[in-house]
Amino acid sequence: YGFQAQTTGFPGGFAVPPVQNQPTMNGTIWMPMPPSIPNCPPGLEYLTQIDQVLIHQQLELLEIVTGFEEKNKYELKNALGQRVYFAIEDTDCLTRNFCGPARPFTMRIIDNLGREVITLHRPLRCSTCCCPCCLQELEVQAPPGTTVGYVVQNWHFCLPKFTIQDEKKTDILKISGPCLMCRCCEDIHFEVMSLDETSAVGRISKQWTGFVREMFTDTDNFGISFPMDLDVKMKAVMIGACFLIVSLSF
């Protein structure tokens, strides 16, 4: 898939420097649209130019005040703070408020032209390690209707583990997270590894957002890093993996 395994560490923090004099749309700074690329799914051209994606969940005032679960919305930005995509959860009210983190969902990821360029489908599955025959799975389509890969949960008695697969369900990469998900004042990292788990390929990180926000809201910030030359389809699947981890663990 064109990636080069890296054995060195990845820069932490996923800091977003201020951006000035950039084109805006409705007050939002958008990443300039790159030219179309042969054999690249439409809308994924942005991913050919970046090696990090920063995901910021938007605060929902009604949810904070009432505790009533609203549709989750996210901004996906590059390392310069320019919005690359916008994602919104497509679920009904009963599913969100009664199924909790185990709920099935469709996540629609839209570019700055308003096109739905990536669709994530998560069916209803078991969310505990007690049922290894029915663990979580997420399908990634880019564009909608064309499957480019899957994220499947692997059974483990204490560690969160996942496998990234291509459209033919061939294993491509492994993801492994920490045993303890609650770490005060620290980021939580999920390492993306080669199939033999000897070389680091990328990282998915949940960022510590401060005591007040962590305690009283369920909004989170995440960062994804991957090699610049990783196939854009696998970059899209890594974005899907981040949303599956978000829904399961946080």
UniProtKB/TrEMBL annotation:
Record lineage: Eukaryota, Metazoa, Chordata, Craniata, Vertebrata
Role noted for this protein: May mediate accelerated ATP-independent bidirectional transbilayer migration of phospholipids upon binding calcium ions that results in a loss of phospholipid asymmetry in the plasma membrane.
Requisite cofactors: Ca(2+)
Organism: Certhia brachydactyla (short-toed tree-creeper)
Keyword Ion transport attributed: no
Similarity-based family: Belongs to the phospholipid scramblase family.
Keywords from the UniProt entry: Calcium, Lipoprotein, Membrane, Palmitate, Phosphoprotein, Transmembrane, Transmembrane helix
Record protein name field: Phospholipid scramblase
Gene Ontology molecular function terms on file: phospholipid scramblase activity
Entry-linked Pfam families: Scramblase
